[in-house]
Design brief:
mainly alpha, binds zinc ion, F-box-like_dom_sf
């Protein structure tokens, strides 16, 4: 790794660190900024992927330190953080993505198309996007697809239900345009080559989907555990008359609690 000198890091702090909202934050950020890069990176090795992402957004200096795509040392910090704190995320980034971009893609619940951060999204590895169901439907097609293109793209969506036969519109269109540019006598060979290529890709996608499912199940069980622990604490609360404030059986009848179990986000105090 090409380390930046301490002097350079300190110098860049003056011009690039943005003011933060609280004095405590400013003070802790400033303390980190004063550290030599090597020590700062040692600290980063123990951070979770979410913490690393948050830290990289604090100021330009941290961003430069942590988002250097070419540095093997930096990428290794992100990789180790993923392997340590993200169960069932053992596969490395797909081609063209570095570790940081991959982690961000896995963590950030943001629809690629509409930008919504509140809707439930899914990763669609064939298109390598996160999408909400509404945008998925708007950007995929079910009918009117050339059979040769269908053969190449190989029914990419294997989820259950009515979405299983849908294809991304832009992929269908670009593949069809490519096919039209191939001389007719060479088309069969081209289709065969493309089929082989997509076949390899499909195997990788199947593995990534398996990790998605395991990771979601793990998150859900952690969420249920978090909620249950919170309920236990609530049921221990006593009011001013010395009576128990909440009854567990009543809390569990609450519709919003029942709904809360089904979300996939980690359970937080606010939640
Ligand atoms: Zn959307």
């Amino acid at each position: 790794m090409k380390m930046k000198g301490n002097t350079k890091r300190k110098k860049s702090n003056k011009s690039s660190s943005k003011p933060t909202t609280s004095s405590t934050q400013t003070s802790s950020s400033s303390n980190l900024l004063r550290l030599p890069l090597e020590i700062f990176l040692e600290i980063c090795k123990s951070l979770t992927p979410v913490d690393l992402l948050s830290l990289s957004l604090v100021c330009k200096t941290f961003y430069n330190d942590l988002c250097c795509g070419e540095s093997k040392t930096i990428q290794e910090i992100w990789r180790q953080s993923r392997l340590t704190f993200m169960p069932f995320r053992e596969m490395g980034p797909p081609e063209g993505m570095n570790e940081r971009e991959y982690i961000r893609f896995l963590i950030e619940n943001k629809c690629y198309f509409c930008g919504s951060k509140t809707r439930v999204t899914r990763i669609y590895w064939e298109r390598r996007v996160r999408s909400c169901i509404k945008c998925f439907k708007e950007n995929t097609v079910l009918e009117g697809i050339d059979n040769r293109i269908k053969l190449i793209l190989q029914r990419p969506f294997l989820q259950n239900g009515s979405l299983s036969n849908r294809f991304w519109r832009d992929q269908v269109e670009s593949k069809y345009a490519e096919l039209c540019n191939v001389i007719v006598k060479d088309q069969n060979e081209w289709i065969y080559d493309q089929y082989q290529l997509y076949n390899i890709l499909q195997r990788e996608i199947a593995e990534r989907r398996r990790e998605d499912v395991l990771s979601r199940e793990n998150q859900r069980s952690q969420r249920i555990q978090g909620i249950s622990e919170k309920l236990d604490l609530m049921c221990e609360e006593i009011d001013e008359n010395g009576l128990v404030k909440y009854q567990r059986y009543l809390l569990e009848r609450c519709p919003s609690l029942c709904k809360c179990y089904t979300y996939e986000r980690p359970f937080s105090e606010r939640g």
